[in-house]
Specification:
Length: about 350
């Protein structure tokens, strides 16, 4: 099947079956498309839609996003995960206001110089919002093309990736580029799925090499397996008699960067000494809660939540904007990571139940 026929079939399928009512399709400005593409990285459409709608209602344009405080941006992102995406959005918005008059440049090379925008994201912005002939290669399109051409190897390997980019460039048409780009995303997400693909409904089925060879289930090759390391930490649930709990803003870089979390120490630390020396707090340590595992793409984190009653405090935790006493009875919606949000909910539940220990079920 040549590229012209490939494109024709994809567009015919899109006209009949493609998604045309997604929120970012209603007014596909470069800004709206950019935000949607960042949110959709490693996240499914159904999950993204309510986050996108809330985010756009609060930050309707680049200048509004740039003027916001980082903590507010993270608050509207909390729960989507991969928080570097939110930090990059905010950072890029400020760069755009400083250097590009508050507009996204409609040039692939310039876009790729901005934080969080790679080749495929730049291509999607320009194709969907500006109608430029730009190829994309997100995870769904990688899978579709790897099967169509029976490309061996894991798609993120440099050799395989180069081959897939060549195919993506070759098959991208010159007409109706926005529709074609959305169609390829939709085909990968709804038809050429990772498991149990619906080959009988695919417009490319008769020319798909993987189908002809009976290898749909094995292509593309999976990422080479490796056992994820396990890290441990102790989260200190430091509470006052009034029910307030101490939260600490995490550093900008690293996991949950910029979000609010509980102070952390190692499992071996003497908690009383640690709180006195690091925080200036006198505490009575209570029984630890059940260990909670939170998994990232590259490691597991085993969290030991440990409550402690604050009986006296100095001035260390009041220095600067690093710490805050958080009222669990009246949540303020600040940006917190998923396990922290669940722990805060458990603390609030414990207070409602007259201090009876609530064991977490995750």
């Amino acid at each position: 099947m040549n590229s012209a026929e490939f494109g024709r079939r994809v567009l015919e399928w899109f006209d009949a079956h493609g998604r045309k009512q997604l929120p970012w399709q209603e007014d596909p400005t470069p800004y709206r498309v950019w935000v949607s593409e960042i949110m959709l990285q490693q996240t499914q459409v159904a999950t993204v839609i309510p986050y996108y709608q809330r985010f756009m209602a609060r930050f309707p344009d680049i200048r509004t996003l740039a003027a916001a405080e980082p903590d507010e941006v993270l608050r509207f992102w909390a729960g989507l995960g991969y928080y570097a995406r939110a930090r990059h959005l905010h950072q890029t918005a400020r760069i755009l206001c400083d250097r590009h008059d508050g507009e996204l440049p409609l040039d692939s090379a310039t876009l790729q110089e901005l934080p969080g925008i790679g080749r495929s994201t730049a291509g999607a912005i320009l194709a969907l919002a500006a109608g430029q002939r730009q190829a994309i290669l997100d995870g769904n399109v990688k899978r579709l093309l790897a099967r169509f051409a029976a490309i061996e190897g894991w798609p993120s390997q440099s050799r395989v990736l180069a081959t897939l980019w060549d195919l993506a460039e070759r098959h991208t048409p010159t007409e109706r580029v926005a529709d074609y780009t959305q169609a390829m995303m939709d085909l990968g997400a709804t038809v050429c799925t990772p498991r149990q693909p619906r080959c009988e409904t695919c417009p490319l089925a008769e020319a798909c090499a993987a189908r002809q060879q009976g290898r749909v289930a094995e292509l593309p090759a999976s990422r080479p397996r490796r056992d994820l390391p396990v890290r441990t930490t102790r989260m200190l649930l430091l509470r006052t008699m009034d029910g307030e709990v101490l939260l600490e803003r995490r550093p900008p870089a690293g996991i949950w960067g910029g979000l609010w979390s509980f102070p952390e120490c190692t499992l071996e630390s003497d908690i009383v000494d640690w709180c006195r020396d690091r925080l200036g707090l006198t505490v009575i340590v209570e029984r630890p809660w059940t260990v909670v595992r939170h998994s990232f793409s590259h490691f597991h984190l085993d969290i030991t939540p440990t409550p402690a009653q604050v009986t006296g405090q100095g001035g260390l935790v009041m220095e600067g904007e690093r710490f805050v006493w958080y009222n669990t009875r009246h949540p303020d919606g600040r940006g917190v990571a998923t396990p922290v949000r669940r722990l805060l909910a458990a603390l609030a539940s414990e207070l409602r139940n007259d201090g009876n220990q609530r064991w977490l079920e995750w």
